[in-house]
Design brief:
alpha/beta, Rossmann fold, Hypothetical Protein Tm841, Chain: A,domain 3, 4-stranded parallel β-sheet
Length: about 290
């Protein structure tokens, strides 16, 4: 059984590794009247420049035709099945659209809905690749990923509420009050929807400490039976400099010295809505 793994750039993966059976479909980002594709003709620096210029930026799901062309191309390379791991269905309609497309492939395409995005979605991709290497059937990979999906959490904070205000996610008055009081919101995502976790007054460093503390509580309450070496911590950011990235990564490493800790950029589908200066951190289990 030869199984390919397909994901979208919401996972933070932009470059395919066809030798390993990994394929990637780019997410569309609409800037004004122009459509760009993450990782192909749009990178983080360019998206930040559009946001700084005040351009209207929105995101969309991959066109159905693009997805079908990708699936046809993968199966044409001799793969028996494709396991597709898109972003959470609770955040986009792309997952449900992909499930409809999968019906046209006579059981050869399996669409995973394990309610993940960004760093935890990438962890799912890595898990799927390991299973595929062991000749695990696509349907079983799907089942394993969906069963494990809830064993993850993401926390997120933003430096400014301007982009959330521009996107209609908060009111202008709420953004103005938060700016005056120097409030940094901390948000959380556990698969269903993005919720408020808390808020801090002052610097982003204080928001980062709150996110680290939240992860410690997750470990104590939800993953207490997991060996520290099997805890995966994904640190992420959007529109932040190298020094800020390194400090954020070091903070996580110091907080979880025995865990697997790495840095990945936040995907455009998040950065387009949070704006520049967003910081995230996610946790999952390496089984």
């Amino acid at each position: 059984m030869k199984v390919a793994i397909l994901t979208d750039t919401n996972s933070g993966i932009h470059t395919p590794d066809e030798d390993a059976g990994l394929f990637v479909i780019p997410m569309p980002v609409i800037v004004g009247e122009n459509t760009y594709y993450e990782g192909e003709n749009l990178n983080e620096e360019e998206l930040c420049r559009f946001l700084e210029q005040g351009e209207k930026v929105t995101t969309s799901q991959p066109p159905i035709g693009l997805l079908m062309d990708k699936l046809d191309g993968i199966l044409g390379k001799g793969y028996d099945e494709v396991v597709y791991i898109p972003m959470s269905s609770s955040l986009s309609s792309s997952c449900n659209s992909a499930k409809m497309v999968a019906r046209e492939y006579d059981g050869k395409v399996h669409v995973v809905d394990n309610r993940r995005i960004s760093v935890t979605q990438k962890d799912s991709v890595m898990d799927a690749l390991r299973l595929a290497k062991k000749k695990t059937a696509g349907k079983k990979i799907l089942r394993r990923l969906e069963e494990d999906g809830p064993n993850s959490t993401i926390y997120l904070s933003v430096s400014s509420l301007d982009q959330l205000k521009n996107g209609g996610r908060i009111t202008s008055s709420a953004a103005a009050i938060a700016t005056v009081l120097n409030i940094k919101p901390v948000l959380t995502f556990r698969g269903e929807k993005i919720d408020s976790y808390g808020k801090v007054r002052g610097s982003m460093y204080r928001a980062q400490l709150k996110m680290i503390d939240a992860l410690h509580k997750d470990v104590d309450r939800r993953f207490s039976n997991v060996k520290p070496e099997h805890i995966r911590i994904g640190v992420a950011g959007f529109g932040i400099g190298e020094e800020e990235r390194d400090r954020w990564l070091d903070l996580a490493i110091n907080g979880f010295p025995r865990a697997q800790v790495r840095y990945d950029p936040l995907p455009a589908s998040i950065g387009a809505h949070t704006g520049i200066g967003a910081y995230g951190i996610g946790i999952s289990v390496d089984k």
